[in-house]
Design a protein that fits this description.
Largest sheet: 7 strands, mixed
Strand content: 15-25%
Structural class: alpha/beta
Shape: globular
């Protein structure tokens, strides 16, 4: 076993093969400069499997009877699910005070609202959206059909989301009034109240799977924040195109504050709202003007 700095060494050839497997199955791009990340995060996994090198692991990952399970295990280890409730509050304020009221007015006849939180990790984002809708509608929510879907490729992350139980770090950005209203303290943890948990459904979804996205129909709002940064331009274009196909004509796409899609698509135009980082179709904006 070759060990350097408590890591099992990964050759350039092994990295090339592994990074291609990851890209083909998830769309996540690991450039050569990030080889050390895969080497570091997977060395412990190889020791758990009592493997001497990455060639054995690649064989296990591609030819073994548990290859799909192992890919999921590997994915859980190489990704960082960094999120929290009310993350980027300024952007959420744009959703709550500008985008949501317009949608509620335009959907007042059928009283149906559908929101997709793509790559939602452990669920803080879709649950935050549920809270914002709940405090906006109040008792009127009984007259509405609100559908919020949180999806992620990580089964481990989704299990946390489905439990509805979070540690203090997850609620670090949550206002005290919100915590008092929507959470129950259980020791050092915070359990979401049932009325918010019941507003959100969770499902495993790979953003490369356009057919799975199509089966869910049209959404009024899509959140996909801080995910595109892990993709190369081809994958970004495919994901944005998928969102365009699944978003209502007057729908809104929210992305992360460090992400830009202007040069990758003509399907969306960024709204001139400070801290909004939100996009709509150019045809709809022309109609509104």
């Amino acid at each position: 076993m070759t060990i350097t700095s408590n890591k099992i060494a990964m050759s350039t050839e092994q990295f090339t093969t592994l990074s291609k497997i990851i890209y083909d199955r998830s769309g996540i791009h690991f450039p050569e400069s990030k080889q050390y990340i895969l080497e570091s995060r997977l060395s412990h996994r190889l020791r758990e499997l009592e493997m001497d090198d990455f060639d054995q692991y690649l064989a296990y990952l591609t030819m073994g009877p548990y290859q799909m399970d192992e890919f999921q295990e590997m994915f859980n280890r190489i990704t960082i699910n960094e999120t929290s409730f009310f993350r980027n509050d300024a952007q959420l304020s744009v959703f709550e005070h500008q985008i949501l009221p317009e949608l509620l007015e335009s959907r007042s006849s059928n009283k149906r609202l559908r929101i997709w939180s793509a790559a939602c990790s452990t669920g803080e984002e879709p649950f935050t959206l549920a809270m914002l809708i709940d405090r906006t509608l109040g008792v009127r929510q009984n007259d509405w059909h609100i559908e919020i879907l949180g999806t992620d490729i990580s089964e481990k992350a989704l299990k946390v989301a489905q439990s509805g139980v979070y540690n203090n770090y997850a609620v670090r950005s949550t206002p005290s009034l919100i915590k008092d209203r929507y959470f129950t303290v259980e020791g050092r943890d915070y359990r979401l109240n049932d009325n918010i948990r019941q507003m959100v459904n969770f499902e495993r979804h790979n953003l490369k799977d356009r057919m799975a996205a199509k089966r869910h129909g049209t959404w009024d709002v899509i959140f996909c924040r801080n995910v595109l940064i892990y993709f190369d331009d081809d994958m970004k274009k495919n994901v944005i195109s998928m969102f365009a196909n699944q978003l209502a004509k007057d729908g809104t796409l929210f992305i992360g504050h460090s992400e830009r899609i202007k040069d990758l698509t003509t399907d969306f135009v960024q709204l001139p709202i400070p801290q909004g980082f939100c996009y709509q179709r150019p045809q709809y904006l022309e109609m509104k003007a």
